[in-house]
Structure formats: structure tokens, C-alpha cells
Design goal:
- The chain is an alpha/beta fold and 255 residues long.
- 43% of the residues lie in helices and 14% in strands.
- It has helices spanning 20-30, 50-57, 83-88, 99-104, 109-121, 134-138, 142-153, 159-164, 183-201, 203-208, 222-226, 243-254; strands spanning 9-13, 40-44, 63-66, 93-96, 125-130, 166-169, 211-214, 233-236.
- It has an 8-stranded parallel beta barrel, surrounded by 5 helices.
- Strand 3 (63-66), helix 3 and strand 4 form a beta-alpha-beta unit.
- The protein starts with 8 loop residues before the first strand and ends with a helix.
- 47% of the residues are buried.
- It binds phosphoenolpyruvate (PEP).
- The site of phosphoenolpyruvate has 14 residues, from strand 8.
């Protein structure tokens, strides 16, 4: 199965939640679960929790990520954080282009492209988010939206850079809404994205790139979503804040 060629990545997106004390408490509850398995568990925490989280996962296979990164190396960019600063505190992954960043903070495909390039240059693994809105799905233009985002977000990338990037398919209508895409919808969209990558960068890149599903994945629906041939893991918001639920999702990926 082609699926065996790809790394399965289960990533939690904590968004703007948890103090440092709470972060350590939560991580301590699930951090050993994936040890010895091929599943890569990642926890993307607020900037202020990064150092605590890195300390908490020491000695386990869990990796820590941030939720954004700026594309410049340094300078007058108040409120922003550079890739080198993330690496310095031990972050290894970074979410880029989350729909909340696109919706509330003016992220565009152009800035997603630049941020992803900067992350890769520093050795961070980007988790690049793409996905359609409800209006776009209902208008029947999901595929058009996804292929445009993939083309723009990866403009100027080498095949090797694309291979190193984790893509998260996140239908906006399913994020934080409790409304999950069906396993078929998730599988179809991830398969479509893989097809776009194949056309642009070749079948070898498409077969090896990790494509996650994200959008109200939880302890109940994870197994079905993760069983889809083209779904190589999940980006999980709400359910990653509850240790018992996140553990069930990790175990579903390991099964
Ligand atoms: C997310 O934040 O990327 C996400 C998918 O959130 P939720 O799981 O809460 O829908």
C-alpha cells in the first residue's frame, strides 16, 4: 500500500489555550503513548509554552511545534517570531496558514508561501493548512480552491521542499464547529490534493508527502478518518486539549 510510504503525523493545535503549568500537566498525561511506534505525535503550543513543552517531552518521541512563524530572519516586525527563534527553543514543527490566521490575521497564500520557505530553510517542518469554506463547497468549487491554494502556497518550491512539508487539509466549515467531513469527503479531498502534487512535482513526491485531515477530529471519528488511504494523520484542535481524547486518536493512528 502506498500509505506505508508516508509518515503518519498526529498534531495537536492548542491555539490560544493553556498556561505553562497546564501545558506540562497535559503533556505528561499522553507523552509516552506513541513511543516505539511509527506515528509521529506533535503538539503545537502557544509561543510562551514552547520551552516548557520541549522540556516535558524530553526522552519521548513527541515533537513540539509552534502555530506560526515570520518569513524574515529578524528586524522591525513587532509581535512576530522568526524560524531561528523557534529552533533555538527546540521547536521542530510549525503550523502555517491555519484558516484562523487567514481569516482573522490577513494571512494570504503569498505570506503562507514565504513563511513555509523560511521554516524549511531553518530546518523546521511546516504543517501547511489548506481548505475550502462552506460557501465554496456548496458552490461546487472545492477542487478549484484546493488546487489554487496548493499551486500558490508551493510557488517556487523544489520537489524536495514539497516532500518535507506536511499538508493539512482543513475544510473551514469543519474547524471548531463539531461538523466533521465524512471519511469519504476527507479521503476524496486529500486524494485530490495528492493528485495536484503529482501533476506539479511528480508521482514520487505525491506518494511520499504526508497529507493530514483536520476539522473536528475526535475520539469517536478518528479511526474512520485515519483509515482512508490518502489521510496520513490529523491536525486536531479541541480534542487535543483533552488528554484522554488525544490518546484515543493517537492509538487509532497506531492501529
Ligand atoms: C484546528 O484547529 O486545526 C482544528 C482542526 O480544530 P478542531 O479540531 O477543534 O476542529
Amino acid at each position: 500500500m502506498k500509505k506505508d510510504l508516508r509518515k503518519v503525523v498526529i498534531a495537536g493545535n492548542w491555539k490560544m489555550n493553556k498556561t505553562r503549568v497546564q501545558a506540562a500537566e497535559l503533556i505528561n498525561q499522553f507523552k509516552g503513548v506513541s513511543d516505539g511506534s511509527d506515528v509521529q505525535v506533535v503538539v503545537c503550543v502557544p509561543y510562551t509554552n514552547l520551552e516548557t513543552a520541549v522540556g516535558a517531552v524530553k526522552g519521548t518521541s513527541v515533537k513540539i511545534g509552534a502555530q506560526n512563524v515570520h518569513f524574515e530572519e529578524s528586524g522591525a516586525f513587532t509581535g512576530e517570531i522568526s524560524a531561528a527563534q523557534l529552533c533555538e527553543v527546540g521547536a521542530e514543527y510549525v503550523i502555517i496558514g491555519h484558516s484562523e490566521r487567514r481569516q482573522y490575521f490577513g494571512e494570504t497564500d503569498e505570506t503562507v508561501n514565504l513563511r513555509t520557505k523560511a521554516a524549511l530553510k531553518s530546518g523546521l517542518i511546516p504543517i501547511m493548512c489548506v481548505g475550502e469554506s462552506l460557501d465554496e463547497r456548496e458552490a461546487g468549487i472545492t477542487e478549484e480552491i484546493l488546487s489554487t491554494q496548493i499551486k500558490l502556497d508551493f510557488t517556487g518550491f523544489t520537489a524536495d521542499e514539497v516532500k518535507k512539508t506536511v499538508i493539512a487539509y482543513e475544510p473551514i466549515w469543519a474547524i471548531g464547529t463539531g461538523k466533521t467531513a465524512t471519511a469519504e469527503q476527507a479521503g476524496e479531498a486529500c486524494g485530490f490534493i495528492r493528485g495536484v502534487i503529482a501533476k506539479l512535482y511528480g508521482q514520487d513526491v505525491a506518494d511520499s508527502v504526508t497529507i493530514q485531515y483536520g476539522g473536528s477530529m475526535n475520539a469517536k471519528n478518528a479511526a474512520e478518518l485515519l483509515a482512508q488511504e490518502d489521510v496520513d494523520g490529523g491536525l486536531i484542535g479541541g480534542a487535543s486539549l483533552v488528554a484522554a481524547d488525544f490518546e484515543v486518536i493517537i492509538k487509532a493512528a497506531m492501529a
